[in-house]
Amino acid sequence: MKRHIIQLFFVVCTMLMVRCPMALAQPRFVPDTDIKKVGEVEFQVPREFRLGFTNKGDKPLHIKEVKASCGCLDVKYPQAPVAAGSRGEIVLTFDAKLLGTFYKEVEVLTDASDTPAYIAIQGVVVTEVQDFSDEYPIDLGNVRLMTNVVEFEDVNMGDHPTAELRVLNTDHTAYRPELMHLPPYLSAQCEPEDIPAGKAGTIHLTLNSEKLGGLGLNQTSIYLSRYMGDKIGEANEILVSAILLPSFAGMSDQALAQAPELSVSESSVELQPLSGKKEVSRTILLTNTGKSDLHIQQVQVFNRSISVKIADRVIRPGKSTKLKVSVAARYLGKSKGRMRVLLITDAPRQAKQYINVEVNEEIRK
């Protein structure tokens, strides 16, 4: 009986393999966007645009050729295969020799499909480009942002704080902002709903603290859609963080007098370069100067280049524990989060404790 079951199993597996050729390893070309809106371009000043893509297949991707729709574009693309799961870029140089609006397309031929993929840049060539870089430094092509990091600090359960995200429409048509991948604890409303050409609007983000995942840092990425059918990517990512604090509202004066207290040997550390090492570290001393046990409820980081290790999460009165803070050089500059560590404790006066991390520029080299 057992032998018949095994034979049947192999027959079914064979049938599935025959009927499902797509299960075979193959590359998959996925561009960051189908249309990259680039806003204003200065007349007769060549501009370079980078069109990112990801190989979301399980086999290396080879770009055979990239054909431009017009002689105004110079094209460069990866000659070596792009590994599975890796990113690549197609670089376009636009000569901007004609005034007015433009829509320029490239045809991308790969070994992922017999059908070519198409990516376009869209914008307008003007005699003078307005400079918004000081007030709106985050350039997304057809829109600009004052910041792409939103922080809700010191949130208590039951709070519904609101943060503002200022958006400038640099396009020549009205723009309706849409936020993608909003978590359940965030809601958004734009004022005005449609931002006129050349004008600014405000996206009001409201936090529902009852829907947060837990105490301490709750961090997520949302994405601003720049046009209908836009995709998510690093370019239009907005990092949102909320810090939910424990409540001590019901504590009596007597309980407060017996409560734990946290003392940190350093609340701001500057890490020095160590020759030949990929990681630098500093050990910080956490001391309980209160009268009852101190519980470190959360130890969290805002930036993925930082890692932490704590010796003990419960500290007796008068005792200390060590917190090791490390920074990996390879991740520096690859995260929008601040360079800091967050401690959430049951000490009423130090429910939240930050440790700011500064990195000597030499480490980045």
Characteristic key phrases:
5-stranded antiparallel beta sheet, 365 residues, 5-stranded mixed beta sheet
Structure description:
With 365 residues, the chain is mainly β. The chain is 6% helix and 46% strand. Strands 9-10-12-15-14 form a five-stranded antiparallel β-sheet, with no helix packed on it.
How many helical stretches? Answer: 2
| SS strand fraction | over 45%
Computed Rg: 27 Å
Query: Which class of secondary structure composition applies to the elements?
Result: mainly beta
Question: Which sheet architecture does the biggest sheet show?
Answer: 5 strands, antiparallel
What integer is the average pLDDT?
Answer: 89
Low-pLDDT regions: none
Strands, count: 26
